[in-house]
Amino acid sequence: MLAQDGLGLAANQIAQTVAVFAVNPRAADIDREPYCIINPMVVASEGRVEAEEGCLSLPGLFDFLPRPEFVRISGLDEDLQPITVEGTNLLARALLHEIDHLNGVLFIDHLSDSRRRMLGTRLKELEAKEGCV
Q1: Of 7-11, 67-71, 104-108, 114-118, which range is least confident?
Q2: Residue 96 lies in domain
Q3: Fewer CB atoms inside 10 Å of the end CB: C or N, the chain?
Q4: Mean pLDDT score of the chain
Q5: How many distinct structural domains can be found in the chain?
């Protein structure tokens, strides 16, 4: 995640079967050290904003989709202590994106069938190259 200047990475993206993700707020221009959340749960969300989204699992693939503008997530930190984090805009998007990963959902799963069909060639190229889609 850090090597790719990524904003987040879920454990299942690196073949770990635990409900944990890491977030790098600095990739969203937020001055905070990267952190992990174990067993994350969305406890609040507000607003709606459409923005471009991508994924380290689908390199070079981006599309626009709506997500809440604000989100509050609770879980456990690396010391197994309760933690609550909040994010707006890009950080909110990243937090929800990583929770989606833990639930087996990719950002492209939020797109309409017609939009996914439009991305079909690129998705097939990625699947052939990475075996990931």
Answers
A1: 114-118
A2: 8-130
A3: C
A4: 89
A5: 1
Domain assignment present for 3: no
- Which residues are catalytically annotated? 98
Please indicate, yes or no, if residue 2 is contained in any of the structural domains. no
Q: Which single residue is written with the structure tokens 């707006």?
A: 88
Whether residue 99 is predicted with pLDDT greater than 80 in this model: the reply is: yes
Residue 44 lies in a domain: yes
Average pLDDT over residues 50-54: 93
